[in-house]
Amino acid sequence: MRHDSGLEVNMLLISLLHYLPKTQAVHVHAFMGAPLIAQLWIGAFPNTHFSFNRCVNGFSADQRKALAGLDNHRILYETDAPYFPMGIHTVFFVEPTV
Q1: Which end is more exposed in the chain, N or C (fewer Cβ atoms within 10 Å of the end residue's Cβ)?
Q2: Cβ contacts of 40-47, under 8 Å, gap ≥ 24
Q3: For 1-98, where are the alpha helices, taking DSSP H only?
């Protein structure tokens, strides 16, 4: 599979989970997708939450748009990720969009 936004993989995964109730809580770990992918998850499972790690520092504009478009209650921050070296940490902030 070529490197892309992960749209095909996420669509396949969502379709494989069709037997779960729509109210199922879902945690999309280390999310690095585009806004469309986030909306597909939320549309299929409204109780979806997305976790992010320090990789957000290297996000593309589209990935930042996906993060900025999420309601705050859907965002989980991975503090135990192995990507956090000891010492000073760089934090990526996303300005909310209107």
Answers
A1: C
A2: 40/10, 40/11, 40/14, 41/10, 41/14, 42/74, 44/14, 44/17, 45/17, 45/20, 46/22, 47/23
A3: 7-16, 35-44, 61-68
DSSP lists the bridge partners of residue 28 as: 50
Q: Tell me the average pLDDT across 12-37.
A: 93
Tell me the percentage of the chain whose pLDDT exceeds 70: 76
For residue 26, the tally of other CB atoms under 10 A from its CB is 16
- Give the pLDDT confidence score for residue 49 in this predicted structure: 97
Question: How many helices (DSSP H) and strands (DSSP E) are in the chain?
Answer: 3, 3
Q: What is the pLDDT of residues 39-87, one digit of tens each?
A: 999 999 999 999 988 788 889 999 999 999 999 999 998 876 555 555 5
What dihedral do alpha carbons 41, 37, 14, 81 form, nearest 10°?
-80
